[in-house]
Amino acid sequence: MTETETNTQTGENTASAESPSAIYVPHQEFKTGLPLGRFRVIVNPERAQKYVKHRLFVVGISLPLLGIGVVLSMYGYLWVGLPMIVVGVLMHRVIKAHAPKILLHLAQHDAKTYEEAMEYEILEVRYAP
């Protein structure tokens, strides 16, 4: 199985094979060790996009924004409705572009998100060389 690695420093994606050097790290150790550079984090970007969209309830926020924006624009409130439409459309693209970084932030600050990301193989932690 081939996964995509995301370098936490530069955000670059490189292909690599799954490695047996993946480890389980408790959340507190991950939270304190990551800023110190003790761990290397590998994020699967496709799974991260799906998880972040689900976790942040993007569809449930963007659809009402789009609907209300269209209705306001049709009733003459163009300057109120148009920004709502733009935000509703751009939300998906921003999440797609930054999903690995958002997931890493959520995992670092929330133990539940960290455990789910490890369980669903979205996030992989290794010791830094």
Note down, in words, how this protein is organized.
The protein is an alpha+beta fold and 129 residues long. Helix content is 59%, strand content 16%. It has 5 helices and 4 strands; from the N terminus they run ββαβααααβ. Helix 3 packs antiparallel against helix 4. Residues 8-18 have low confidence and may be disordered.
Summarize it:
This protein has 129 residues and is α+β, with helices and mostly antiparallel strands. 59% of the residues lie in helices and 16% in strands.
SSE layout:
Elements: E1 2-6, E2 13-17, H1 27-33, E3 39-43, H2 45-55, H3 58-74, H4 78-109, H5 111-119, E4 123-127
Antiparallel strand pairs: 1-2, 3-4
Helix pairs in contact: 2-4, 3-4, 4-5
